[in-house]
Amino acid sequence: MKRIKSGILLVVLCFGALFQGYTQNDADSLGPAATVLRFTCTNTSDDSVQLKSIVTVKRETGNTNLANAPVSFYALGTESPMLIKEVKTDVHGCAILKLPARNNFVRNDLQQFTFKAEYKGNDKFEASEAEFSIKPAKLKVSFYEEDSVRFVKVEGTQLNANGSESSIGAVDLIISVPKMFSMLKVAEISLDSTGIGTAEFPRDIIGDSLGNLTVVAFIEENDVFGTVQGSSTNNWGLHKHLISPDRPSRELWTPIAPLWMIVTLIIMLLGVWGHYVYAVVQLVMIKKSSKAPERE
Description:
- Helices cover 20% and strands 41% of the residues.
- It has two helices and 16 strands.
- It has helices at residues 2-28, 259-291, and strands at 34-44, 48-58, 64-65, 70-75, 82-88, 94-100, 113-119, 128-134, 137-146, 149-159, 165-167, 172-178, 183-190, 196-200, 213-222, 226-234.
- Strands 1, 2, 3, 6, 12, 13, 15 and 16 form an eight-stranded mixed sheet that branches. It has a four-stranded antiparallel sheet with strand order 5-4-7-8, with no helix packed on it.
- Strand 7 and strand 8 form a beta hairpin.
């Protein structure tokens, strides 16, 4: 009988949770949901500025990105904002617009462009907007070898209002290599006053079957230049087919996952399926106990 009562109590609790969820959904439908627009600008190596916005819907159950939402990009600095273009977000809630670095947009006292991204909202979702200021700049990545030591060289320049280019100055940047799910950091460089810096390049990074690597240099969230990114390709990587099939390397970027990751996954799956088995066993026992004759 105790098991039957426990089963009834569990059913009541489940129905209560479902009712609360429906009530919350009805409450949410009373007004438009709040949205957040994240806006960033990136100077790329092809002499362009990339405007990127992500529209997110805020709910008590969690945040979700809003797809197919029209985002308007504006250039500020004049009496009224100048519309550049309207772009709809993709399935990830992301809208991207690329502009040439050499343009006629108005600059502020720091020679920065100021852009605005705006989602105007509708009956279901509230409006949101954000602004970002950025000065055009670029990073040139090159490679050379000296005394059997490999080096990566980065030269940073900025585009002035009069169209001339000058040194980006003394800034810090990161050298990384794209991997499957993230960027692998390989070095840090501090550019000098002329905007030039070098760092030794490691020899143990795996490339493609030909040893090709894409090397990315980027300045992250600078107060004047925002995010600046430049990239180039070399053949300094280890060839994939050189990895021995008898003793494969277990790294995050290799075809065979590390042992700690496999063990963690197995433990998580055993825990999930163990809960399923336990629930089924308990239901069977409740059913059997309900059919058993009660003792006086």
